[in-house]
Amino acid sequence: MRKSSVRQFAEAYYDVATGASEKERVAIAKEFLKLLVRQRLLRKMPRIFAELERITAERGGPEIVDIRSAVHMDAKADEQLTENLEKSLGRKVKLHHVHDAKLLAGAKIQVGDTLIDNSLASRLAALKSHLLA
């Protein structure tokens, strides 16, 4: 038997659950978890659901935006960032925040394949290369 990839599991779940009622989605989720248990694949669940979010975004759902910041953002800053990103991207946005202690200041924003690096480290590196040029 051929093993299924994380993407294949996520696509199968998406295809089955899309259009189902809330009650049906609960039953589908339970059966999906049972399948993962039977195949000893529970450890892949976080990757499957991350892939499921990407598939949802690809198929017209909200764009997933990962934000790594030096400090925790408050709700007001979160709302403003969401609003600005939705205006510039022209679609709904879902933010995922990660506090990154390695960042001294600033943030890194990942939208699809695009990385916006507004961290202090990148600014200092740019300044250094400008001064050396």
Label this structure with key terms.
133 residues; alpha+beta; Glutaredoxin; four-stranded mixed beta sheet; 4 strands; elongated
Count of DSSP H/I helices? 5
Ranges where pLDDT stays below 50 over 5 or more residues in a row are none
The CATH architecture term of the largest domain is: 3-Layer(aba) Sandwich
The structural class is alpha+beta
CA distance, first residue to last residue: 58 Å
Strand tally is 4
What features would you describe in this structure?
It is a single chain. The chain has helices at residues 6-17, 22-38, 45-58, 75-89, 120-132, and strands at 63-69, 93-99, 106-111, 114-119. With 133 residues, the chain is of the alpha+beta class. Strands 2-1-3-4 form a four-stranded mixed beta sheet, sandwiched between helices. α1 (6-17) packs across α3. The longest helix has 17 residues, at 22-38. The radius of gyration is 19 Å and the shape is elongated. The mean pLDDT is 81.
Write a compact overview of the structure shown.
The protein has helices at 6-17, 22-38, 45-58, 75-89, 120-132; strands at 63-69, 93-99, 106-111, 114-119.
